[in-house]
Amino acid sequence: MHHTIRNHQNLQHFESMDIFDRTREISKHSEDKASLRISSFEEIEEYVEEISGEMQIADTKTVMAIWQHNPNTIQIAVDQTGEKFGLFAHLPLTEEGALAITTGQFDGLNPELRFVAKPGQTPVALYCWLAWSPKRLSSMLAAMASCWSELCPAGCSLFTCGYSPATDKLWRACGLESASKYYPEAPANLLVALPAAKNGSKKPVLEVKPVLDFNDFTKVIAVRSATYLAEQFCTFDEEFDGNDLCASQFLGTIDGDAAGTVRVRYFGDFCKVERLAVRKEYRKSKLAYKLVRAALDHARKKGVTKAYGHSRCDLVRFWRIFGFREIPDRPKFTFANVDYIEMEAILKPMPDRVKIDGDPMRTIRPEGRWDELGPLDLSNLKSEEHKLQLIEENTRFVQAG
What we know:
- This protein is of the alpha+beta class.
- It folds into two domains: 8-193, Gcn5-related N-acetyltransferase (GNAT) (Aminopeptidase, 3-Layer(aba) Sandwich); 206-346, Aminopeptidase (3-Layer(aba) Sandwich).
- The protein has helices at 8-11, 21-29, 41-52, 60-69, 95-102, 137-145, 148-151, 165-173, 214-231, 236-239, 287-301, 316-320, 375-400, and strands at residues 34-38, 74-79, 84-93, 125-132, 157-161, 177-178, 190-193, 206-210, 248-254, 257-267, 270-278, 306-312, 325-326, 333-335, 338-346.
- Strands 8, 9, 10, 11, 12, 13, 14 and 15 form an eight-stranded mixed β-sheet that branches. A seven-stranded mixed β-sheet has the order 1-2-3-4-5-7-6, sandwiched between helices.
- A hairpin with a 2-residue loop joins strand 14 and strand 15 (338-346).
- Helix 2 (21-29) crosses helix 6.
- It starts with 7 loop residues before the first helix and ends with a helix.
């Protein structure tokens, strides 16, 4: 089914986008907290001159015309000290502008002012015109993530263009997809994030839990078989390597269906996060992020202070979101015909982690459920109840005698 933004009534079926949890994840792990502020005339001139030397963008006259039409459109990214590190330009589109961008009538180098909403006017769509921060990309994404809800009101679709393979891959990692999927006349490099449907369908329920029984473990095997054996053609012995019974396994479900998995193994002062897999039909969900976060939080609850992993070369950006960094002076290596890079992350143990000087019952409860009553806790309660019952019966016997 093709979506349209020609008619406002169609937009009433949408609610605010929720696809930018991924950029919000980046904001949690960025080296510093970043934000956006409206730029000045002089700053625009400075940045346009610098950027135009590296890539083709609208000229200063055009950028200034947009800024004078709506000063909120050109913003400077600043860190917590107030230092500038990038430029973010966005165009809030009118209905006419939204229609133009989906039919190939929109010129990003010279956008018509009638396509751009004025201050105070609710946009129909938002076009990310430029995001430039050559040395602090994660900080720029963090700054952008800090104001998505303000920039993208309810019913507002988001568009941008992948001007290079790298930017195309980055935007797709943030949740955007080819606009031509929904708008046949859209340019080939136009990407879109549509707001979530509000037609009565419920939002999928994503859950992650530690694997504690054989039934859930068979689901882990099924997910990894569908992912690695069927898609990457590795052998059974390569995938099921003899380490599954000494690892913490996690199962991710979507509306109850086994959809993803990850495992963690422990080595002295660090843990190794590995075997992350999400079934093909669920990869547009946020389950992969939820799985990794659950695995790292589990390790932190155990008191682990460092995480280690092997990242495919094309997935380094994904692991950086969680604080992983490439290990210096370590070369790429290959196994199962795939190139990998070693990465590590510093973990902050949770204040309520399992400790020797804590409640002794926590160490004998089921894995990952250290704050819930386990079988032995319940056994103790039953014993206490039985004792109280005997005391009560003996008391009644004495009174009766």
